[in-house]
Design goal:
Elements (H helix, E strand, L loop, with lengths): L5 E10 L5 H10 L4 E5 L6 H6 L1 H19 L14 H25 L3 E4 L1 E6 L2 E5 L3 E11 L3 E3 L13 H6 L6 E5 L3 H13 L2 E5 L11 H14 L2 E3 L2 E9 L2 E8 L2 E7 L1 E4 L3 E3 L6 H4 L22 E3 L10 H15 L13 E3 L4 E6 L2 H6 L5 E6 L4 H6 L5 E6 L6 E8 L2 H13 L4 H6 L9 H11 L10 E2 L1
Parallel strand pairs: 1-2, 1-6, 2-3, 6-16, 8-9, 8-14, 9-10
Antiparallel strand pairs: 4-5, 5-6, 7-15, 11-12, 12-13, 17-18, 18-21, 19-20, 19-22, 20-21
Bound molecules: flavin-adenine dinucleotide (FAD).
Flavin-adenine dinucleotide binds next to β2, α2, α3, β4 and α9.
């Protein structure tokens, strides 16, 4: 353990250089704060850049291009030697990460943020001790905790060389057979990546449905592709034992009381993430930690100790990079005396499967669970000109509104470019748009964006391209 001897003082310290922490540091510096950012890794960018969003989307894009080229056969396009070179792809992915990490480091430097390498731990309400650093400790007026999250382990695979998302994204090899434990977004995205790279993939999910939390109308569309691409897709199935045998893995699982064993070359465990709040001395600073390990915060992202704020994966809500970044801006503005609040009506979520699935605001399941009546409008991509021109008609747009006021409450999309199209819906919800606002906004033709307008027309009962009456649930 390396310990420096120097103690520093600063106005604001940010702990963690992920999309929460580095954005908070930049915004605070722009608002005139003196900022030190402590990061234990060699590079800034956090899980999102180094082992999450960016490497996964690079691999997903490569596989998507491959499938697009294959699907183009229906349009008369043929490619004779279509293949994925895993080594070249790995290098490309690494170059993407390196460039973005350098760019982020450059932004911090140009704004005068001092980046200190080391592992921080509170040793009081206004001081940190650093390990593995040239700096022994930092005294601060304000601290922003942005230490993020780490992969959740399962006892069954303890001490076995199974992959987590981190190893899978390094692309060490393309196993002939891969078993993915977990049908959440990370398991589904990475399962489809490896299936696209040539692995025979079995995906096992404990719950009856995939992608819990997403609208099941939309999930069904993704499940159709996954069933085609995966060797097997098992829901309601519990993995009961994992053993290592002759360099392979013997995995036993149980569905409806029936045991079944499969032998695979690799196992990828993707069962969730836990916040990094247990080893950073929060008790020494007097910061309350919830039973779930998350840090309760107010609208300004302040913990119960008002000069210690928390953002990103360590706070309640979805563990997503854009939520972390928005909170980072709010926290920086709050400590700078600005009237900022994390009061967003919706945090969009995207699953980068094929097709992509995205939603924002209320889902139909949530409305039902809360006993809330809603108006729902669905528009299938099969009725949309642009989807036809692309040969991509498997998907839909779904709009959820209040039946009385017709205020837009939620939008779900499944289909190509859903990840890009969902931003319009988020803006509409933030702006308090009604079905009429969406339906009367001219959307360019022929584009996929028309699906959102068409779904709003269905919900408002004014659809012309399909004959349906609006449904109330
Ligand atoms: P992190 O990004 O986790 O950053 C925390 C940083 O703090 C790390 O760099 C860590 O080294 C550092 N740190 C921790 N403890 C200390 C300490 N004591 N001292 C100093 N430094 C410390 N989100 C999306 O929005 N879209 C996606 O497509 C997406 N895809 C994902 C795919 C995968 C495979 C994974 C794993 C995650 C994905 N996520 C995605 C989630 C996203 O990565 C996280 O929500 C986001 O990174 C959280 O940001 P953060 O700033 O809170 O923390």
């Amino acid at each position: 353990m390396v310990m420096g001897s120097l103690r520093q003082r600063t106005e604001t310290v940010v702990i963690g250089g992920g999309p929460g922490g580095y954005v908070a540091a930049l915004r605070a510096a722009d608002l005139g704060r003196e900022v030190v950012l402590v990061e234990e890794r060699e590079a800034v960018g956090g899980v999102c850049l180094l082992e999450g969003c960016i490497p996964s989307k690079t691999l997903i894009h490569a596989v998507e291009v491959f499938h697009t080229a294959e699907d183009a056969r229906q349009m008369g396009l043929t490619f004779s030697d279509l293949a994925i070179d895993a080594d070249a792809l790995r290098s490309f992915k690494q170059s993407v990460l390196d460039k973005l990490a350098q760019g982020t480091a450059g932004l911090l430097k140009s704004r005068g943020v001092e980046v200190v390498k080391g592992r921080a731990r509170f040793d009081g309400a206004s001081s940190l001790a650093l390990e593995g650093s040239d700096v022994a400790g930092i005294e601060f007026q304000n601290a922003i905790v942005a230490t993020g999250s780490r992969v959740a382990q399962i006892p069954l695979t303890k001490d076995l060389p199974v992959w987590t998302s981190r190893e899978a994204l390094e692309l060490p090899t393309v196993p002939e057979t891969l078993l993915v434990v977990g049908g959440g977004y990370i398991g589904m995205e990475l399962g489809l990546v490896y299936a696209g790279l040539g692995s025979r993939v079995t995906l096992v999910e404990l719950l009856p449905t995939l992608l819990t939390g997403a609208d099941q109308d939309l999930v069904r569309v993704v499940a159709r592709t996954a069933k085609r691409r995966f060797e097997e897709l098992l829901t309601d199935t519990r993995v009961t034992a994992v053993e290592r045998r002759a360099g392979r893995f013997l995995v036993t699982m149980e569905k409806d009381g029936d045991p079944k064993t499969v032998e695979v070359d690799q196992v990828l465990v993707a069962v969730g993430r836990v916040p990094n709040t247990d080893e950073i001395g929060l008790d020494k600073a007097g910061v309350s930690v919830g039973d779930d390990g998350l840090l309760p915060v107010d609208a300004q992202c302040r913990t119960n100790v008002p000069h210690i704020l928390a953002i990103g994966d360590v706070t309640p809500g979805p563990m997503l990079a854009h939520k972390a970044s928005r909170q980072g801006k709010v926290a920086a503005e709050a400590i700078s005396g600005h009237p900022a609040a994390f009061d967003n009506r919706s945090v969009p979520a995207v699953v980068f499967t094929d097709p992509e699935l995205a939603w924002t605001g209320l889902t139909e399941e949530e409305a039902k669970r809360d006993g809330r009546q809603v108006t729902v409008g669905r528009f299938p991509l099969s009725a949309l000109g642009r989807a036809r021109t692309m040969g991509r008609t498997d998907g839909m747009a779904k709009v959820i509104a209040d039946p009385e006021s017709e205020l837009l409450l939620g939008v779900g999309l499944v289909g190509p470019h859903a990840s890009e199209l969902i931003a319009e819906a988020s803006l509409a919800i933030e702006m308090g748009a009604t079905l009429e606002d969406l339906a009367a906004t001219i959307h360019p033709h022929p584009t996929l964006s028309e699906a959102v307008m068409e779904a709003a027309e269905v919900a408002a009962g004014s659809a012309v391209h399909i004959s349906v009456s609006k449904s109330k649930t």
